[in-house]
Amino acid sequence: MEVFPEPGRFERRRQPLCLAIGVFDGVHRGHQALLGALVRRARELGASPLVLTFDPHPTAVLRPERQPPLIQRLSQRLECLAATGVEAAWVARFDRAFSLQEAGDFVRSLKTWFPELRAVFVGARFTFGHRRGGDVGLLRRMGEELGFEAHPVEPVQLEGAVVSSTRIRGLIQAGELEAA
Fold first, then answer.
1. DSSP 88-136
2. Which of 44, 47, 42 is nearest to 116 (CA)?
3. Cα separation of 34 and 29, whole Å?
4. Does the structure show a pLDDT above 90 at 142?
5. CA–CA separation, 12 vs 18, rounded Å?
6. Are 64 and 57 in contact (CB under 8 A)?
7. H or E segment to which residue 55 belongs
8. Range with lowest mean pLDDT among 34-43, 45-54, 138-147, 156-165
9. pLDDT tens digits along 35-93
10. Residues 6+ apart with CB under 8 A from 145
């Protein structure tokens, strides 16, 4: 899997791409469902599946006092992402400047950085941009305007509970490794 720190360094950025956006800490079953949908749609469209992930975790910048312990180191996360069939990962440096981007500006930037962007996959409750000014609705509207599909993926449930990094962290901290 190709890993790059900024869009300009991605040699295939002008080829058809499908993109998933998220931290993907733990690459758990919920993430795997989203990434599986990404890879399938990319194949249908003759595009490459690409992931945008962040380092450090956004909470480390926005609310350092609430920074969650990571489930996986970045290198482990990238290994797991590659195992899902993702071909490339943009590891964006999440800093104060990145956090100040307005949601609409961020979406327009995606299309500028990746002119052949065909589809974007996110979690159904995904928010983004400065002060979480963007959501799935905005992503869909702008996707229609800019010529890409927006695919929100519903959370995966296991034994009646949503699979999430937050839940997995709580189970680990409680010593419930089997459940985690």
1. EEEEEE--HHHHT--HHHHHHHHHHHSTTEEEEEEETT-EESGGG-EEH
2. 47
3. 9
4. yes
5. 12
6. no
7. strand 48-55
8. 156-165
9. 999 999 999 999 999 999 999 988 888 888 888 888 889 999 999 999 999 999 999 99
10. none
